[in-house]
Amino acid sequence: MPFALLKDRALISVSGPDAEHFLQNILTTDLDTLDPGEAKPGALLSPQGKILFDFLVSRAGDDGFRLECRADIADDFVRRLMLYRLRAKADITKQDQPLVTIMWGDDSTASHFDSIGADSTSLVDARFRDVAVRRFYGGSAEDGDLDAWLGLRIANGIAESGSDYALGDAFPHDVLLDETGGVGFKKGCYVGQEVVSRMQHRGTARRRVLIASADSPLPAPGTELTVAGRPVGALGSVSGRTGLAIARIDRVKAASDVGNKIMATDVPVTLAIPAWAKFSFPQDTVSAEEA
Questions:
Q1: pTM of the complete model
Q2: 79 in a domain, yes or no?
Q3: To the nearest 10°, the Cα dihedral for 243, 244, 249, 252?
Q4: How buried is 106 (Cβ within 10 angstroms: 0-12 exposed, 13-18 middle, 19+ buried)?
Q5: What's the number of domains the chain is made of?
Q6: For the chain, how many helices (H) and strands (E)?
């Protein structure tokens, strides 16, 4: 069963009698729907609705939570959480050098659990719909296959900050948090909620994660995608001839309607919606000239 050790991750613990109420009031994830044994995506937003920090959140006992995030943003994330804590009875601490291992496949829970470590915490990664993916905290320090993990993320349209988009530059809808369980539309207010709710109810989300493919190797992450010289988006993670992109779906549809090629430098690219996603290319698009 394939697995990969992620060495660039950190775990932040938030615990105490007010931990759930505190986090529920600031994060996009609806903790009322977070079951034990699963890790859901989420974000802490700016008041303008842009993602400042992305993470996976899971329960840790009766009054505790784990926030798994990029190691390089963990200290800033802790400081931001401290600013919001005020008088809430919640302890916020960062765990040093955690072991975060990913395992995927049809039987990633039982027969291969011992290869990671019986003392590990095992969680379902709720972002994935078409393949069973589990995250293990603790256990073995074997490296595994990071290239295979990258390929799995790309094939399933799962974007992460740093490799696919810059923090402070994307709305939750841009990176499909609205479709992967990372945004609670039925919960109460949280930071940036008004902007996100307006995009949802008005259907104004136009930038989306798409899966890019080409007949030759794709250029480097960050390469601009253009139609007739005009930008429509940019590549994120790349693995050979496939990758992720965040692009304007109205402009992609307009280009397709008139037969214009989408280019990544000199490489023609095809952009597709992840198979599990519910959004679609809009019927009303920008003009061919604007595309």
A1: 0.92
A2: yes
A3: -20
A4: exposed
A5: 1
A6: 6, 15
